[in-house]
Amino acid sequence: MTTLHETGDALRWAIQDINELEADGDIDAGVAQRGREAVEYLFRPDTVYASVGPIDDGDLCLYWVAGPRSVSIEIEHAGRPGEAGIWYAVGRGDGRRDSGVVSAPTEFLRDALAEFSAAVEAVNPDWRKLSPRYVEGLRDEHRIH
After folding, report:
1. Which of the 8 DSSP states describes residue 117?
2. Is the residue at 1 inside a domain?
3. Distance of alpha carbon 34 from alpha carbon 40, whole angstroms
């Protein structure tokens, strides 16, 4: 049986983290909005939970790592109009690494994140239970019912 805390929470928690970073002044409203739009496009119901945090001078980083695999997505702050970009690096686990800068989230990034999440699920279907947010999800689920 799939429960509420097992589907889609990565998106909810990423948005919550982005909102908190914006409220605390760690990222500005523009970076926060671009971050929310990015996770809404990139995340699927089975996406592994992201580490979300500020970097550099107000940029936003979404990061995943499991064994030799990793995905890093940085939403860059715009100094001038048209200057903001999304830097990414995808470690495939076999020594190959893709990286680059794009102006908006791409299907490549969505697929890379889906592949990462599927690899984590294949190795450990109980990965959610390793996260402190699993307990938070259980508490939230019991409040809903």
Report:
1. H
2. no
3. 10
Give me the residues paired with residue 51 across strands.
63
Residue 102, domain member (yes or no): yes
**Domain with 63 in it:** 6-142
Q: For 2-21, how does the pLDDT look when each residue is reduced to its tens digit (9 = 90+)? A: 443 455 789 999 999 999 99
Q: How many other CB atoms are found less than 10 A from the CB of residue 106?
A: 15
67-76 long-range contacts, CB within 8 A, separation 24+ = 67/93, 67/123, 68/93, 68/94, 69/93, 69/116, 69/119, 69/120, 70/116, 71/109, 71/112, 71/113, 71/116, 73/38, 73/42, 73/105, 73/109, 75/31, 75/34, 75/35, 75/38, 76/31
Domain count for the chain, please give it. Answer: 1
Bridge partners (DSSP) listed for residue 75 = 60, 86
| Domain assignment present for 132 | yes
**Does the pLDDT of residue 46 top 50, yes or no?**
yes
Q: How many residues does this entry show for the chain?
A: 145
- Which pLDDT score, from 0 to 100, does residue 8 have? 78
Is residue 67 predicted with pLDDT exceeding 80? yes
Is 35 among the domain residues? yes
